Amino acid sequence: MCTNYINVHIIYKFMDERAKNLLRNLNPWWEEKEIEVPVFERKLLGTIRKDLKLKQILAISGLRRVGKTVIMMQVIKGLAGPADNICYISFDDISFQDYEKAMELVDYFLAGSDRGKTRFLFLDEIQKVPHWADLLKVIYDTYDKLKTVISGSASLEVRGEKETLAGRMFTYNLPPLCFREFVRFHGMDPGEPEKPIMRWYDRELLGNKQRYEELFDRWLIGGAFPEMLGVDDFGHIKRYLNEAVIDKAIIDTARLAGENPVLIHELFRVLAGSNAQLFENVNLASILGINRNKVAHCIDLLEKTLLISTSRNYSASIAKQARTSKKVYLAHSSLVLAILDWPAEVLMTDAVGHIVEAAVANGVHARFFWKGVQNGEVDIILDTKPPIPIEVKYQANVTTADAKSLIKFCERNKIKHGMIITKQAFDPMKINGIDVLFVPAWVFLLYGPSIQSGI
Question: Which of 72, 112, 121, 364 has its CA 20 to 30 A from that of 376?
Fold first, then answer.
């Protein structure tokens, strides 16, 4: 008991006044002050609340400005128990970005908490602390009745420190707002579909079709980042995305990886111009004037920041997947428009096909496409059992001829179902014995590939 008293006394005495004041400002509930949080809740919030009962550290990872801090605050708002048993620490303050200082802040909180009850520790932007994984390992292994929730930008992945926490941490990715969340924010969530889907569509969605189409266009050009919801100035949205999302993510990643941020930024700009298209490292190396190994490394960094994702050619041969070209998808279409300074009117041009294909690919976390040896190609192959081929034909008129490559893939792989993503057409058809669902992109992005089972 005496030793514990001395430790508490030392912590309170030697922790500097600025740090203590900042920490108390970050935790207004310690002084019985209410915190205000947004009413709108992301889908992930319910999962985090449910998993608080688990022993493991919960890590919320994601692209910058997608709402990780907000989810933390919403979780805190809903906690019961002593206020002194809840602590939030943000490592945005540069004076906190030190291993010893971080440990001192945690000790300060724990010294004033009720050890007989569960304590909740929220560590925001943890990746800014050197050796952050070692810090978390010490906290996890040392303290009982302590639930830790962390957040970090995607640069959590860059240095590979997470491996230190194997078995001690569960990671949850918070993506940009999906279309379903966007329409829910605007009060237009139609709920879950019912069978038969076509009749349900006529009853529940058809009357508001024009509004959903308007929201879909709005989401494509700038509706994926919570702080921009309700902002109508597209120039402001593009500036925000360039400065607060793209530039910050690239600078942070380059610093952690010891790479040139200008090079990574230029590579990202080139990839944006190839959104939803094939690329080869050797061609990118030629454009950028660097070797292809450097290109591969920088693409890997961009994937770890979650600014891009890539997909491979669908094949049973892993070697063939590695040899052939890949496809690239930016995390959201608004990032393409921002980095390339495209106007919103680009949705009225042929470029919209690639924009919508990338939106669909991101919506289903696409890992594969298919490119046959005789020019047949299917945009997305879902690696399910059986696989689901998805072709995007976002155009005014779609015919059975547009399903030619999809049918070829189905016949080759003995698959009975496929999907064509359209601009307006919503119609189940049987082509050469294959059930093909033609479905509008906005409907598909509300409900995903499971909508086919409702026919």
Answer: 364
| Residues spanned by the domain of 253 | 179-454
Residue 79's closest CA among 110, 48, 54? 48
Q: Nearest Cα to 85, choosing from 125, 56, 116?
A: 116
- Cα separation, 402 vs 390, in Å, equals 12
**Residues 157 and 184 placed together within one structural domain of the fold:** no
CA distance 124 to 150: 6
Task: Please say whether the beta carbons of 35 and 76 come within 8 A.
Answer: yes
What pLDDT is stored for residue 163 in this prediction?
76
Domain's final residue, options 139, 173, 207:
173
DSSP designation for 263 = H
Is residue 384 located within the same domain as residue 286?
yes
Radius of gyration over alpha carbons of the chain, in Å? 25
Mean pLDDT of the chain: 92
Cα separation of 322 and 148, whole Å?
39
Neighbour order of strands in the sheet with 377-382: 277-279, 326-330, 308-313, 368-371, 377-382, 388-393, 417-422, 434-440, 427-431
User: Residue 89 and residue 99: Cα distance in Å, rounded?
Assistant: 13
The answer to whether residues 321 and 363 belong to one domain is yes
Q: How far apart are CA 329 and CA 277, in angstroms?
A: 8
Angle at 137 (CA atoms; ends 22, 303), nearest 5 degrees: 85
* Parallel, antiparallel or unpaired: strands 169-173 and 57-62: parallel
Residue 154 confidence class, pLDDT cut points 50, 70, 90:
low
Tell which of 156, 173, 190 closes a domain: 173
**Token couple for 449:** 């590939």
271 Cβ neighbours under 8 A, 6+ residues apart: 279, 284, 299, 302, 308, 328, 330
pLDDT, residue 13, reads 47
The confidence score (pLDDT) of residue 449 equals: 84
Q: Which amino acid is at 5?
A: Y
Please indicate, yes or no, whether residues 358 and 219 belong to a single structural domain of this protein: yes
- In sequence order, the β-bridge partners of residue 417 are 435
Task: State how far the Cα of 252 lies from the Cα of 261, in Å rounded to an integer.
Answer: 9
Shared domain check, 369 and 224? yes
DSSP structural state of residue 113: S
Residues 290 and 254 in one domain: yes
